[in-house]
Protein 1
Amino acid sequence: MYEIEIDRSLCSAYGTCIDLAPDLFELSDDLIAVARVRETDAEAAVKAASACPMSAIRLVEIRADATRRAA
Amino acid sequence: MRSDPTFWILARASGLLAYALLTSSVLAGLVLKARPFGAALKPAVVTDLHRFLAMLGLGFIALHASALVLDSTVRISFEALFVPGLVPYRPLWSSLGVLAAELMLLVYASSALRRRIGARAWRRLHWLTYAVFALATVHGLTAGTDGGRPWALALYGGAVGAVTAAAGWRALVPATKGGTTRVRDRDRPLAV
């Protein structure tokens, strides 16, 4: 399970994440991607984070005892 | 017998073009951050333009350096292109150009390696762009053959004015809010 983080200063609204995972991402009015869900375990989230041209998406793995950076 | 001025002319023209492309890339980067045109300009398009202009600028810097080595007006060794101080022609001012080119290459490379070095290191390295622009401006004005001509002064003056104005705009007008967005930061219910 991951928590989605988006670096607002990096996001340039390429929309790659929305193309790859429309259920997980959308574009805000100020043209910054935002997550539509709090947590996800969808493979599409990993694909979207890897494909972001600005490397603006980070997935933080959620564990019962600790969290660590996943992507 | 008079030597062929082709490479000398090519060096001067490519140097000026590289400076114009660097200026344009810096301006595109500032527009991307400050977003003075709102949603009218797509950030992704500006980002692509910013990257393309920087890459093209580096290409013209390579052409500028190659033409200087191939030209016979001033004897410049291949090593002098990488080590500041080895160019015999106006050594101090030429060194600034070498330094500017190396820093620009570093900044460009850091963007390609952003995923590896992390956003914080990339952002810090990107601040070097202002130093690159300043070094290139002084280099062009002091080492360039055409630096004192009215049209060249207009080019450098216009570039400095435009970058100063854009940087001022970015500093004074709130840019796109930074930080990290998580869904829990939003004030509306979850969509899914």
Protein 2
Amino acid sequence: MTDMIVSELGQAWNEFAHGFAHLLPRLLEMLIIALVGWVIAYLLKVMLRSLLRLVKFDHLSERAGATQLLSTAALPSPSGLLVQLVFWITWVGILLAGISFLDIGGLQKHIGVFFLYLPRFFVALFVIFLGMLASGFFARAALLGAVNSDLPSPHLLSQAVRVLIIALTISMAFEELGLAQRTIIIAFAIVFGALMLGMAIAFGLGGQDLAREFLERRLSAQRRERKHEGDLSPL
Amino acid sequence: MAEDNILSDDLLRQLISVGEVDILVGLHTHNHAKTIGHMVQVIREGLLKYFPRERVAVLNADGGSVDGTPELVRAASITDLRRENSFYTLRTLHCISSQYGTNVSNGTAMHIIVAAADLLRARACAMIAPESSEIRPDWMDQLLGPVYRDNADFVAPVYRRQRFEGILVTNLLYPMTRALYGKSIREPRPGEFAFSDRLASRLVGHPMWSQDAGRLGPEVCLTLEALAEGHRIVQAFLGPKGQAERPAPDLVAALRQTVGPLFWSMENANGAWSSPAEAPTLLTIGPAFDVGTDGTANIDLARLHHLFCSGTKDLESVLKSIVSADTLSQLQYAASLDQAHFHLSDELWAKAVYEFASAYRRSVISRDHIIQALAPLYRGRAHTFVTENLNAAPDALGERIEALCVTFERFKPYLLELWSAPERGS
């Protein structure tokens, strides 16, 4: 009995030792890959940081309003965020490539999926960045237009434009990522449609008199404005 | 060559059939049928009277008129003129009209006229605004004479204006241009002006034509180019500035046509204005400043005050990225004052304008947005200017504008400092 136990233990130990001896070089390879990956990711980070500084990416983001948006969410600067993102994605990517060396069943498939997902992730990020640029630009344009035309609630108008563009951007990004695709699109369509319909009904039916009055006031105000600017001809 | 691109085949054919000329008069039109016939006759009368021996052509660059403007230009008969005024010319007086497209653009029209002047080797070319209701035959002599006879390169007009007419010109364009280049060009955005063949050959391939500045405000760009290059400039008094039949452009459009090109030209001049080269003294034919006593009626000062206050408040986030914290707090303080005590000082105005110019150069936000953000400040300034000069005599008004010019000049080192400051993020 004791011999059997010892023999089984010995066999288990041998199998473990054999397995470990088989795994050890791969583990070492993976560690080396992880280390090299970290160095590559770090170098990439440094290079990208210099490139972003060269193209004045933060300046561009500040103009677009992305910096303010990120700082509101207590996030680092856009260039810092992008650099960190690239660093981690590179390192994790290389690390996963290293893990695939371990030859653990089933893991390789997931790693493959991860790599296939990366381009979509970057496209989604790009869409969000462009959306932020567009929302900042058009929100400011709406604000300036409303202020210079003396429209009521210029900030409300500007924020509405911003929210609408950001919502559109997020729905596009989620669609690209394939996350809750239908839900997001349907939610966006419902909200947008409801908003427009609500405004149309409120303005056209609910407030018929108000709408008429408002339009009359606006048009006569425009005429008055033109007259005033004309009387005080800037040129 | 640049003119090959801008001149259509049809126009080139017409120009080739005209051949070289001594004088070219350019008219840029768009649906000006009501006034253009009379204008062409007055121009012809002036040309026959003052330049009877010269080879002369009138070129109309039309932006797709649908009211028959080009036909009226072409049909203007010289025989009517001879019959009425007993003028005789020794040469043919050509009238050419060409449509450059359906999108109206003063910049394109002027580029065509400059390119045609260069191609025809015109020694002098005058540009006449189609709205000039006050045009007289002697304008031809006033504008073209200094270039054709006295070797000037650019003739800018001086108009007799009403007291509060052209506040953007008197409170921004004129003082700032003067501070930049040290020359008292009263009308940096001239409706009518003339230039020499030397200047035309420099202008024809200028980068301004492909920029918004050149498309929207070619007059300002041309004037500032003449100043920046140290050309010989003459001012000629033309009398009252004609009142346009059409409504004047709204404030934002006016800012785009004037302040945008001014800021762009500062950048394009590569600092030529920081220490302007010695240029010939500015000669002015006739009075350098003439102002009427009308122009106080119907100015809604309360509205100007309201638009300044609400604009400063609502655009705080935009202004924060354009002007310094100190300037912004001063503007906010001014906005907190009631109308009776409201005052936007010369110093604050000059400083703010310079900060806008610097922000435009650094493109802190979209350049068009920077120009639009100036509108509330201009309204505040207009309020102060009107309030201060409601009962001022013409001489006192002149002194007041002179004081503003001095303030702009005094603050020029501040502009230079802003201009040479490293960009944020670099």
Protein 3
Amino acid sequence: MFEIEIDGKTLSVPPGSTVMEAANRLGIYVPHFCYHRKLSIAANCRMCLVEVEKAPKPLPACATPVANGMKVKTHSDAAASAQKAVMEFLLINHPLDCPICDQGGECQLQDLSVGYGGVESRYGEDKRVVPNKNLGSLISTDMTRCIHCTRCVRFGQEIAGVMELGMAGRGEHSEIMPFVSKTVDSELSGNVIDLCPVGALTSKPFRYSARGWELSNRRSVSPHCSLGSNLTVQVKNGKVMRVLPLDNEEINECWLSDKDRFSYEGLNSSDRLEKPMIKQGGEWREVEWTVALDYVARGLKDIARSHGAQGIGALASPHSTLEELHLLQKLARGLGSENIDFRLRRSDFRAFPKAPWLGMKIADLSILDRVLVIGSMLNQDQPLIANRMRQSAKKGVEVNVVNPTSDNFRIKLANQAVVPVAEMAAALEAILAGLSGKGKGEAKAIAQSLKSGKNVGIFLGNIAEQHQDASRLHRLASQIAEKCEGKLGFLGEAANSVGGHLVKAVPASNGLNAREMIEDPRKGYLLWNCEPELDMMNPAAALAAMDKAEMVVAFSPFRHRAHEYADVLLPISPFTETSGTFVNTEGRVQSFKGAVAPRGESRPGWKVLRVLGNLLELEGFDYEDTESVMQEIGIAGYAQCDNSIDAEPDALPAAGGLQRIGHAPIYFADGLARRSESLQATRLSAAPAAFMNAKLLKKLGIEEGNPVLVKQGEGEARLNAALDDRLADDCVFVASGHPQTSALGALFGAISVERL
Amino acid sequence: MEQILLKGLDGGNWRLADYLKRDGYAALKKMFADKMTPEQVIDELKKSALRGRGGAGFPTGLKWSFMPKNYEGDKYLVCNSDEGEPGTFKDRDILYHNPHQLIEGMIIAAYAMGIKAGYNYIHGEIFEVYERFEEALEEARAAGFLGDNILGTDFSFQLHSHMGYGAYICGEETALLESIEGKKGQPRFKPPFPASFGLYGKPTTINNTETFASVPWIILNGGEKYLELGRPNNGGTKIFSVSGHVERPGNYEVPLGTPFAKLLEMAGGMRGGHKLKACIPGGSSMPVLTGDVMMDLDMDYDSIAKAGSYLGSGAVIIMDETVCMVKALQRLSYFYYEESCGQCTPCREGTGWLYRVVDRIENGMGRNEDLDLLLNMTDNIQGRTICALGDAAAMPVRSFVRNFRDEFQYHIDHKHCLVSS
Amino acid sequence: MLSAESKKKIDREVAKYPADWKQSAVMAALRIAQDEKGWLAPETIEFVADYLGMEAIAVYEVATFYNMYNLEPVGKYKLTLCTNLPCALSGANDVAAYLKEKLGIGFNETTPDGKITLKEGECFGSCGYAPVFLINNRKMCGSLTFAEVDRILAELE
Ligand SMILES: Cc1cc2nc3c(=O)[nH]c(=O)nc-3n(C[C@H](O)[C@H](O)[C@H](O)COP(=O)(O)O)c2cc1C
Ligand code: SF4
Ligand code: FES
């Protein structure tokens, strides 16, 4: 340890720390722009110059390593005059257009210039004007304001793993820009808005809509992926205006995925369902809540009476709150039906995990030295877990992957087995064999990598979980984990993928699971916060089942296709308009409060279920608030989870022919993201196509861009063929979660493609 | 006068065969024959008092001794032939007329530091020099001087050239490393220094072309002999690139400590019998001195430093009484403004500001407060940046204004030039 | 996109660097591409990026940092004249004026017939041969007098 003194205070710090870090530990603020604790040191802004005893010139605190006995002065005349001089240089070409700048009130430059800026400018020459860039639908630019700190560039290179922005040119002519007309919309790109210390990069959807000081901040939790990112939801006049990350080192650090950041637009979309509605005589009619709920209660009782309660099925989105899932299952079971499920995209129920979770704390991902990811579009499904693995890989951790596509997650992978989607189990068997010293090729290399590790993590992603052979993949993965004394984890699809299990929003053995409820259609459905044709494992079958049902009750924040097949539409509140709880992939129970009042006549889901339970004269539906629901659920802190599997599912018969990969792209995956206009305008939201590798295109005599007919059983879709050479042989990637593919069948399984 | 770098060169005799006739590669052979250890090589260098010829004048032997010795993994040797400092054109002539001497020097250096691979970074504008150097490398490889198992020993060294493409800043050693790594040439913050974190993150030593080219002679004749050629602490000979208002601009290799007057005489004296008004003795980044001061000066590191400037890269820019100092500074300031890499705030913003103010004065729009503003600005740039380009931009401004303040003031007062009026 | 010959040249440059540092050849690759195409169009930059496994913007950063790359089409001959102080002391500005008048264009302009583009350069490290200009980044002509300029221009096809 080194003893050092800063501004007269002494402390001891480990060698290798910087003066900035040491000052921070003492609570001493050193002004800075380019320094950011999560990014590499650039030392280019020079704002952090401090006086160091015996040094002939002021040194940048951010980059200067401490030395034993060092004496630093951060506020001496010498330091202050250096800082003031830098501030003068920063401001000479800055437009000083604070009154019309979106960053106004939350601008580092503005704040610091108050303390360090001069009163009058000595600069009498013409100011530089820098043309703005079109970065796409998420980020607005005012490049004249840029102070060249390069935080945004380093973010792309170091955190997002893709250099979307660069600093082109030289000297005073340097400009931050993307390549020619490329957009900036990786799954993490919005973070550059937070990183930009001035108003050069600002949120496009938020532009000119409010000033920082007009907004009230509410804490919340992301309803999207299973990470459970902590959010600051900013509201003005009862409307959500913006969403920012809330620092939580153990979860999202200081970052936020674009989905978490921008999907709030969906909350304010014109698609919002604002009044309960009933379809009578083929006509939709807005009604009072009491009328609607009476109608639902009567309908449910009718079905139970004439077909038995098992004629009713409840399907809930895994993005629902814990309270909602609990009350929904309680209601279904109260009615006498065991048909309740929230695992909508799952297709293999031969065996399933009891409460699948990450198998460790999120922060403990950094302890692993060997990783195997099985079946995942990691960047899209878990953007910030991808980042954690990216940082690990840079430190030498070996990340291995088994996937039907060679997406490298923008990580320097150790090994990657790219196998046809139908052969994933075989690939895992080969790795198992490799662990016993047999095997060859990639599988053996992966086995060797895993074997050489001390802390091994084996992770199953969305593709593995939604795969036809999911149970066996799970079984094999757990065997691999056992063999290398590692941990098995599920990355988890949605905000409550863990929670749904904990509140038993899944059927017992006498009930039907999500797939069975579709394949063996029910008379009545309760659809909770889901759009079956977009959110389920077999969209075509789901639609057919809905069409056939006597009564479909759609509880939803949005109007959707239920218009065609439902009988009742009930507006429930999205996450910002209700209190609730999500259990993230590490089992952490996170409750949140509503940020704004429910829009229109929509009501918090738990309240709707409470009233419905009472109308149905069910026991125990007298809750005062979500806290009392949580008390009944009885979990807090970290929930007990369990990844074990006891069944030994048989091998599936070998699948011949073409196989679909029906992954739901990041912004098609849930109802809220689907309704964010800015996210829908990004590159990642491009209309679905039938992607195949060159070999398959050739085999089928199809060329890139040809219109094709894609068929699965009865279902078909007309799409364009597209080339993606990352795909394994005989795989056709056709996105799910999109209206254009909702007439198709299972997300994973046989598919045919013919040229039109 | 002893010459060790440019001796006997006639423009045509650059090939290996010619070099061998000039005792070429004899030092390398001697080193192996005498079984000199790396430490002994470095000791000779230390004795020679050879100081870096790239501008900073850092003792070369000392620099070499900083390289980690028992390091597992790659280390690199890099030659800085990115000569772009206005006034300097010596490395170009060494490369063009005597490429093998550089190659030999680098091989010896690589041996002394246990290095197996190196690059010579050549200034972009001298393509013909680059092509010739590539040819010389081929010759050296074919003759077994370069590559695997040099001269049958178990020492191997691979050397390649890398071409710059128009960025003065790449002469700064860490910018040069970034450039070899295929990036923009933006200098790195130091520490860490190249000896611990250099090319590709590996320990690296960088020297100037002339520095390396001086090495064979030192090994062949001994460090002490080399020191004796010059003055204490200023060993050996140095090439001075003389440009501007002399009769015969060109490179002159003389012992360090040679009087300026002698050098001027070698260059044919002042052109057209004009009077020496000013001289920048060490390349455009160094402070300008008045003619009177110059005439009393000896050309070595210490004497020039005492007079308030630096020997730098040894570029001697001669200006006679017809030169307008404001206009001269305007051009130099433009250069630094153009060539700033753009990362540090004081340099990126300050070089443009300096240029604009000088330009304004030159164009008859100077204000009374401008001279103090310029001096204050140089205080705010110098010593505040990642690399020394900030200093390089500030020093001319400071010295021009200080040493020729009347002329600047005249420009401001009369809105036109003192010289041409 | 680039000819087989250019690709071969690039491969030779790539071979100079460690196997995982293909990127080191980017400056050479851009130079070779420019020699073939005359200038660096966005497609050319993207091609180089793909060829070396780099991000296009990273290649663009390089292309815009070093000023001998042409980011816009230039005439058949690009004449870059050094006007830095040592050259200026030896008459570079007179040569500049002469060139401008003779060609009827200013710096950064191309003759109407697309033959010659005139550029102003920074120090070539050749001040002893001042004034100097560079033709197409390759051939350096020094000690320029008006007569010498006339002779060189006459030789350009
Ligand atoms: C802006 C700038 C430009 C430089 N240009 C050169 C150059 O063209 N050639 C050179 O050898 N050194 C140049 N240097 C100095 C190098 O950084 C470095 O000190 C030198 O190459 C070390 O070699 P030496 O010890 O043999 O002198 C420059 C430094 C700066 C700050
Ligand atoms: S001083 Fe200038 S040239 Fe040097 S690193 Fe800073 S900005 Fe770049
Ligand atoms: S914060 Fe230290 S130089 Fe920018």
Protein 4
Amino acid sequence: MKRSALFLIGLATPAADREWVLGDVVEELQRIEQAAGEGAARWWLMRETLRVVTSAWRHRLAVRARRRHVFAPRGDSPMSVVRNDFNYALRLLKRSPGHAAIAIVTLAIGIGATSAVFSLVQGVLLTPLPYEDPTELVLVQGARSDGQSGPAQRWSAVQWMEWQRESKAFETLAGYLWSFNFLVSDEGSESLEGMLVSKDFFKVLGLKPLFGRTFQDSETAFPPGPVIILGYDLWQRKFGGDPNIIGTPVRISRRQTPPTVIGVMPPGIRFLPSPTTAQEPNYNVNAQVDFWMPFAPNTERMKAPMWEVVGRLRDGATLDQAASELKVMTARQARSDKAFEGVMAQVQAVSDNFNQDASRILLPLFGAAALVLLIACGNVAALLLVRGLQRQDEYAVRTALGVRRLALFRQVSVESLLIALLGSAFGAALAFGIIKLLKLIGGLAIPRLDAVTAVWPVLASGLGLAIVCALVAGFLPALRASRLDAMQVIKSAGPKSSAGRGDRRLLRAVTIGQIALTLALLVGAGLLLRTTSNLSRVQSGYSVEQIATMTVTAVEGDWNNFHTLALERVSALAGVQGAAFAWGVPLTGNNWPGRVEVEGQPPLTRPSDAVSVPVRSVTTGYFDILGVRIAEGRDFRSSDANKAAQVAIVNRAFADRYFSGSSAIGKKIWQRGRQQPPAEIVGVVANGRTDDLTRTPEPELYLSLWQASAFSKDLVVRTTTDPRVLMTAIQMALRSVAPTVAIENVRTLEQVRDNSVATRTFAMQLLVGFAMVASVLTLVGVYGVLSLSIASRRREIAVRSAVGAQQRDIRNLVFADAFRLIAGGVIAGILVAVILSRGLASFLFGVEATDAPTLAGVGLLFASVALLACWVPTRRAASIDPLEALRSD
Amino acid sequence: MPAAVLGEFEQLVLFALLRLGPDAYGATIRREIETRTTRSLSISAVYTTLERLEQKGLVRSRIGEPSAERGGRRRKHFELLPLGARSLKVAYEAFSSMTEGIEQRLKAMR
């Protein structure tokens, strides 16, 4: 404390006075310590430091005023040397503000882009999860052990409870499940997302309530107690942060007894992934948890696969140990009971699972931003090199006068550091703007973007990047300055703004590097543009125009009544062509991963072998509304009601896979084993890319919603005009049936489609932006290098034209020079692009990462634009007047 | 040279120099003013003022020997120059003639 206080005081005091001021402070400090004790002295020193630091400015002015009158030798401490260098650099910048501004703006763009993306990386990927020791948390997920892909599988209570008892790698395990519910209100109910959790869940995660308590053992026994813990966000949003909330009941749907609030969790707690519920219409794993309710294994159905499982590793235990231990235990369980056969455990660190999606998009973007920064650094380096060439004389004179090489190196480095610092200050300001923009357009593409509150990351990364830039951009110029041969320069005393062959070669290398990186960015942008265009032209198999969708949930009352009446009233609205309810609207990610047995396939020997198909459930007219052709058989009818014989419709891909050669109509499908009554296939519809626009149609199964009802599902409405006009009317019609109805995700099917490709669109927009900026920077660089090269070869050109070279010859000469530069860059760039564009492979659709036409097209385009940029310098070269040029030397 | 017009803090510093005589340097000057006026000062405020006084030719400084209690740092001693003494006298006389006859009332004030 004492040392740092004295250091601060020393720093704030001009070097000329530092010795006596510090001496006085030390003397006084000792006196106070003897008179009043150590505490008083420490307190005094603190105040003294504050006073000295705040009055430093006045003191400095006084000393400077004195210096004008009295000569005093300057302090030569390292601090004051650097300060002198800084002042000198500042004066230089002021002398050529244009130059300085270009360098600063260039760096600001690079630093702004990079630190904006970095702050996203920091906020989304690097911020630790809000659990105790999050690195020890492990998800245990079920997958088919025969290696075939299939939907995620849940675990039975018997299984994970045995692991809990016997495992040595895990400290504890807990079961949980994603769940949704509705806060019932007469002004329209609101959906809540929450978790059903077993007894040890909070212990495993290390979560403690903000206030109140977690579940007691009696509440997590079967049947679970009517209690609820609220998420901070929900508590603030719907209960106004009421501190007396504990003990009050909450009116939610699907619960006979309204559960009582027993606790509130701290803010920012998000879900654990629950892949087996990912297809629910309300599922959003990146949201904040609204509520937790107890979930207990039903003592009669202990073998039912109901649970997702999370565990905490013991200290020192590894993921591999946990995996091999679980492998042994699941194998034993599978041998003892057929119900557990065919499922194996996969372990994954919770944080890895969390960051899968985000790192897929953020890391390539961060790379792209870093490329922009590198290109900007290249420009600044070139700029500084040119400035250094112009100041060769100055450097030479200083060296001759005895300034050491190291001092010269330091001086030039301080100059570039100053430029970099100024650039990073503007860059930080720019970064805040960019982050705002990214949050605006990237909300759907980057998960948990709401958690990004970038102030420190931006400032810190800005500062760090400034230092990196100063090193990258300033090293070469500084080295050049310090290794200058003073005698040579002074003897030749050549015209300023000319460069020797070695310097020109260096500059050309920098420019070629820039062109290469720019080309890599342009190729990435080009590939994503082609992807977007491919996506917009893909034959989806259904139409998205003029269709309104919204998620509708009747939280109270008779299900059948509500939905019948709702369809009647919505269909009767003016402008509505047709309306249907559907569980599983295309591209929403919503469907039911059903396990079925199909007629003609061998009977199952174990449950995990069942055919898994996405099941959707729709009402009459759904296929018409979406423009899906019924190829064979019929649509659902209103007579396909709850009590009637079960019916099903399959798509063409389903029919082809399981009934190729014969008609699918009349064939049977079992959903709950062959002992139960089957559903009969009554129709076959055309294929569509329902799950994902980028994937070819797969077998699908449709059921009648009246027979396979769903709690939350979407209403789809085909309208005669712009569907957005009718949104309010449709919602009012629904509320007129039941005021408590919950209506969410109100959007057009076009929006749904756009959202489904949001990540690609976002990556495309960003990469196009980055590539544009990079191109401009690089073109400026090319222009500058070529201009310098011509200026340096003035005499040569003049001699050539004096001995008879025509303007055309001169132009060819310069053009060939430019062409070599650009061609070199483009060829290097294509190589770089081939390597880097693999990072984008997962975003591409209908185009390879090494797509030759894109590579060639982008290369040609850039080359021709760059050659255009060379036009002005070329003409200037051709118009050099030989007489004048030779005379001026 | 005519006497200089002094600011209030400049007067305090010059009074302290007068009182301390050859003992006057940063720490003692500050202590003298702090104990007599019961206001707390920053050491750099003292030096700022001394700087100004030196520049105006009212005081001069000399560098002393290093001492152990100051961690081997030297002192900067200050002494009153004739111009400073004269300026302080003028200021004091102006002050005392203005307060003449009202000392009791001034003391009784709260």
